[in-house]
Amino acid sequence: MNFIWNDGGRSTSGFVGLAGDCVTRAIAIATGLNYRDVYNSLGKAANKTVRNGVACSVGDDFLRQHGWNVEPGGDLPFQMDHLPRGVVVTHLEKRDSRRGGHFCCVIDHEIHDTWNPMDDGDYVIVGYWIHSGAKTGDDKLSRAPLRPRDDKQELTQNEFEKILKRLRALDTTASNHASTEGEKRNALRMMQSLMLRHNLSRDDITDDDNVENVSYTRMACPVNGRRACTWEKSLAAYVCDEMFPMVQWYYGRKQNRTLFWFYGPVDDVQNCIALFRELLLTIATAAQLQYGGYSRGSGASYAEGYVRGMPKQLSEPAHEMSADHIFSQSALIHARTLAVHQAALDWLRLECGISLVTTRGSGRGQHDPEAANRGKRHGSKHDLSSVAGRKRITHSNR
């Protein structure tokens, strides 16, 4: 099933920070109701905040009251063939484990969520909800219920960023001594109107680097074999450290394949995993053509050298900036990156139920220095100038 990142309208409803809100999110997406309204209704029913999750029974009662019917899932694997078409709210749990669960909205066999449960391969369907107006048959087809349109939910993250930029531009005009009194009044009036319409506060527009406003996800890239090659791990580290420093990675095994996971800010993760896949194919193909393989022997040495030789991301020219200003900007970027890393780790634990541990593996026994040096020469010629990677803090919008 295809995956579409969707937070159900949480960010555009003015919510910030991390939350284990899968029940609220899935219901908001499926019903088309405003996220804040669903959030408040579930909180009132549970008699507590639903920021860090809510009992499945509370979500069940809400859906039942709004005309949705539950069907047993039979603990079947979370796959397209086991769900009807249309709008479906699925209740998932990990196989052989009943510690917590996950609510996920599937629309016409496309997953709408902040991460893709199918990547795990361990989730089974406990049950799923369909609207009472949707008819199902043995062919697993149903029509989507008529859902009310919610403008806040339809607002994309990119459009939300455009609104923030517009508000910051108005804020600059309102506080600029060169602006006339009329310009200041108009700017303030437009700011107030936009903030009320989109449920934003001044903190949202004055703190451009507020980590609490970042939306997170994780995505998996499968590779062949039960063991990750040294050069594949080095490549994952290279892509994250040099090109997308806001993104972090880890790997694990699922049956007969290895999965590389990337997690962090949504756009960065999507771009990072696309580049990782492209480089994987490029390096593996080059090693295969020249040495007949890439997982062992000279082919693996060539691939390792290729990654080591790839160009490091250079900083932009400092021009006339003072050494103190350069140091201050670098420190600010580093602090921002560390804050995002910690927030992403917290999100991974809270939303996906994953806590990472660090392990050390043994090195590869065979090594071909000549093949490694050849790979290093080839890797140094790899052109990454077109990749939109490392983010820098600028002040052009202030």
UniProtKB/TrEMBL annotation:
Q: Cite the DUF2786 domain residue spans from the record.
A: 162-202
Q: Which residues form the DUF7168 domain?
A: 224-318
- Show the InterPro entries listed in the entry: DUF2786 (IPR024498), DUF7168 (IPR055592)
| Pfam families assigned | DUF2786 (PF10979), DUF7168 (PF23771)
Region entry Disordered, spans: 359-398
Q: Where is the composition biased (Basic residues)?
A: 389-398
Q: Which residues cross the membrane?
A: none
**Could you tell me what this protein is called?**
DUF2786 domain-containing protein
* Protein's organism: Rhodopirellula halodulae
Classification lineage: Bacteria, Pseudomonadati, Planctomycetota, Planctomycetia, Pirellulales
